[in-house]
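Appendix B.2, paired examples.
Example (i):
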Amino acid sequence: MWETLKSDVLKGLAAWHAAGSSTDRQTALTRLEAAIEAMAAQAVTLSRTPPPEQELADLILAIRNERLFEACLRLTGALLEAGLSTDETLLQHAQSAIELKQFDTARDTLEAVEAAADSSESARGAARKALGRLDKQIYVDRRGEDAPGRHRAHERALKSAITSYGREYAASETIEEAYYPGVNLIAMVWRAEQDNVDVAAELAAICPEHATAADISTELMADLHPYALAERAKADGDRSHEPWALASAGEALLALELAGRPFPGAAPSADWFLDYASRVDAPFKLYGTLRQLEEVWLLTADSPIGGEALSHLRNRVAALGGETHLELGDQLRFQRAKEDPERAGEYQKLIANVEPSSIQRYFDIFERAKSIARVHDRLGGRTIGTGFLIPGRFLGEAYTAETLFITNAHVISQNPVDRMNVGARTPKEVELVFGQYLQKGRSPMAAGLGHPVTFQCGDLLWSSPHTDLDAAILRLAATNIDMPQPLELMPFDLYGAPDCLVDTAFIIGYPGGGDLSVSDRNNEVRRVPDNRELAFGWLQEHRKDWSFVHYTSSTLGGSSGSPVFTNDVTTVYAIHHFGPLKNHETVDLDQADARQRIPMLNGRRDAAGRPISWAANQGVLLKSILTQAATDLAAGRDAPEPVKSARE
């Protein structure tokens, strides 16, 4: 079976690579994806008589080299589930996850390889380099138009990438081992210099004798230059050779040229990139270098230094038909040259200042949705709220290894006040259903989650009444079902930071007990212009701390307990809990009457001393919830004792 499946994939790869016309490319891609899916479907059968490990590794690498990351992730995921868990399969699974922006999946996989006792030393080294690649991608993806170097979460990613690459560079014993982590270390240190991020401590820990990217480049080029010259001579005329050392030499020289410190006796960096591009026979292999120059080195075709090298690579990609292949294959991460602004502005116009959303944004939303559950009343037979998984480490060291569930106290509670006044259910009266949105004919295979899974609640660790922080944190009952990954929470030190872009409230939950839905329109965070506020108006003083947020995002009954995401839909900063309207009522923000409004959080009053109000929904900031929960648990104050209801 292995030989047949392998042959079909290899034939598909060859046809896809060689396809010329648009029709041929479409046919080849469909055939290739079908062959890869057939192999994934037979993963369990293959595991009974495992194929040769090197053959399998080579085939997975061939798929990834064509930048078919969705197919590669699907195949490696199926192989891992079937027990074919080799180092190479794990590494390629993680690499594809990075490309698809599934950063949590990638990090978990790489950290598992690095920590596993049976991983080879080369696999651990590859995992450390890939962790550097992961943090590098997080940094360049989430920078946007921020003021350089000011977003601390991004800075941590940058510093982590420098540490990962630096350790591998420092530990390398040969130039073959050194040049890949070396040039990436140079690139990230250079980027830190441009973005005004202080990485002196990181550099001191790994290479104390160097303080700048140019210093590291000079050291690396002392060995890389003669090695790359030898590789260029050896590879001349040999199209099967992959001359990565040539691109690496070009990148190290680029750093020196930008610093005004050309390396003695070396040709310009543009010549090295031209030579490198001319020896690569597939556009997909050029893309990694092209992306590095554009995303990390911030080059454009007009850049006085580096622009020529970028043009060489783009021209080579175009000559090989690469843009067409990548576009047809849905490889949305190909970074094309920006259009001429004058020409672009002549024909295009943003309406109401609303930009089109990237397809990747919806992939990100779907990935986060796997960790969000409907809270189902077991006896009443209906959805009463939403909740989501969080990492236990925010509650203190004792909970670091745990994944916990959070929702509102008016949804789940053992407090008689919550139960009598707002109808909260006890943990035993509910069940948590993940993946419910797959039941209406949607493909579980495409979702990557399988069929909907139901968990029972375990201990209620901590709660705060609906009149206070309105939150309940629970364990899930033990089961042999794999639990989804927890959502990523916004670091506490970013709340109120001037560069923390949180001016929208993306809410994902089960409004009205229906389908899983996203509040992605008219979802502004409401602010009050007041110089007494912190840097962000949504951090308004309400209790003794800063605990609540108001937004215009639409919600319904069932939305209670939904996560509230930041602008980029990557991290959660609040939990939804309250709105002034009844289900299915609507409101005009400018014409809302008193019944449809709630008081502004900063306690503003009119001339008569009455609280000023507005139309908004309200969420509770996770920082306030988790800080209070950690304090209470450390002091032995947790959730109220269980109270039996008449229904139990």
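Example (ii):
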Amino acid sequence: MSWRTAAILAGSLLAGCGPVTEPSPTPAVASAWDLPPTWPRTTTAPLVGPRSAVVALSAPAGQTIGEVVARVASPLEAAPGRELRSLPGLTVSVVARWGDRLSAAADSPWFGTAADYTTWFGDGWNADWSGDRLGSAPAWQGSSQAGWLWVNHEYFSNDPPRLEAPPTGQHLLLADALYRGGALSSNLLASRTAADLDTYLLAARRELGGSWLRAERDAAGRVALRPDPAARRYDNTSRTLLTVTGLPLARRAVDDQGAALPAGVVPGTAANCSGGQTPWGTVLSGEENTQDVYGDLEPWWGSDQQFRPGRGGDPGGPLQPAVGADRGALFSAGSHPALHRDRDWLGYVAEFDPGLDPGHYYTALRSGGDGRGHRKLGALGRARWENCTVVVGQDGRLLPGQPLVLYAADDRKSGRIFKFVSREVYQPGMTRGEVRGLLDDGQVHVAHFSDLDNSTGRRLRDAATPTAHRPGRGVWLTLSLGNQRQAAPNGAALGRSRLTVGSALADPSWNGLGGFPDDAMVRRALFTACNKLGVRELNRPEDVEWHPWDPAGRPRLYIACTKHEGGVVCDPEGRLLTGEARLAAPARSDALGLIWALEEADPAAPGRSGEFTFWAAWEGSRGPEAHHVACPDNLLTDPTGALWFGTDGNLDVNQTADGLFRLELDEHQPRYGEAVRVLAMPSDAECTGPSFTPDRRTLFVSVQHPGEEEPSAWPGG
């Protein structure tokens, strides 16, 4: 997500709306609210202006993208520009733009805004499955010519409409289209009413979530959207329903009409950033910055990681998270009840059963359900999830006889990396529903990079750069009150060296923070739990990807840390920084970012590994030349061993376009450690969501927020 967005979304949309931290009453009966007369009317007017889009980058017939890149004499030049540029020999085609219709029907859903994560399901991807029993993983099976593409939709750029101010940028594009389609009484430029603002916000919720669309590649390699009645949109309205598994909600949720939903079921998804494709044929989608759209459940942390007293996190008692809707957030700022949602309804890794009706929520086999449908992985917990990756073998399948293992990143300054390990193990022959049931129960662990220098987040404590031959070391801490085995990292500094993780979490005053009454609260507030223990802070960890094809011959986890220019939560010993100590503490000054390689102590059994080593696989740099690149974000692993990454912020650091890069990881290759620019974004767009077709001839990439700040007409049409 762009750094600009946090500032853009700050503040109330409606004059006089202040923050609300206490839950507002939830209707106990299924009585309908009065929605605006135009709701749920959709506009038929097209969007006009610079728009996010997903594109396909294709190699000539018989070649892969990687082979074309490997043969180039020099990478794509580093330069800003208003058009999309690619290496010679590659064909670029725009597959879908924000506002494109996904089917030919009059009420067709349309492609959403701020395209991000993509993943491909080629026709016949499950052809070798035995009914509902798992066969080959979808990533490298099925057709590369025709299939279904999933795309996440993350957020709106620019300024939303307020009673006292008109919309700008993307918000203006949507408002204008709604006005021309008859949904609004004006385009919100000259005048605005509370009713029009409510209608706008109700409509805007549909632009987030995910798209499931049909696409085909022609003989020339160009990929195009093919309208299909089976196309689907999963959005932030109650047309999309998901079950929160593994974590109880504060109270029962209601749909957009005010009707009570089944226990544990919540309406909609939002802030969908990156994600992952599972070997059982579903899509994992990180609900990242949900605090911007409905409010922060952990409001006791400021924008510069400082602790803010008097907001429910104070020492001396249990933590008191803010559950009710925050009227200063994007959607909850409207006056209509359908816009006010509890904060614990979002902020998860969502799992979609793509192609299934958006209203089909997940029911587990053990509860008498069919094991199908959409859900949110509450057992992993709540955070600002960038993405989630699944541990697999070199064949892309789950490891037999081992628990399911997920890694995920909390995308914020001072965020951490988490590992979920299922309580039960995967056995070959399991059905899809049985495999999905493994994620309903398990344990969450956090990576404590114990050798990492707290002042930089880039070097070891002796100031050396960690390398594969001299790596740093770390430990996985089990985040549970029952963990009476591991010592809290900040125990010695706070005078109790033998204090365990579990006791520290439960202590009502440990490290100047309130206590956790149970493991459910730990999962609700993972960032606070890590701060209470003094877990080493990272430089805004974004994408994490499991690499079963690493050239070293051992699987590794790769972590993109975009940057961190600001204060930290704790001092080098893990003590909470407050008062004079915080004022005296230096801010981190990492404007360039890096990519960590993490290797488990037992790479073949990551679920059993309690320790790991880490080192810098690549570091950002400053300068005007082609090899100067900064701020890595989304990652993509390649069966040939390479790593691909997009950037978010390189334009700000180097004044050259963000783009897509291929990083050679094989130390025996001449370009080892070199990041080769393959694609350059138009204007100030971010490069997100790269994914391959099975033959690796086509690579999908999202061009996010072109024209966010700089003028752009891309992609036209």
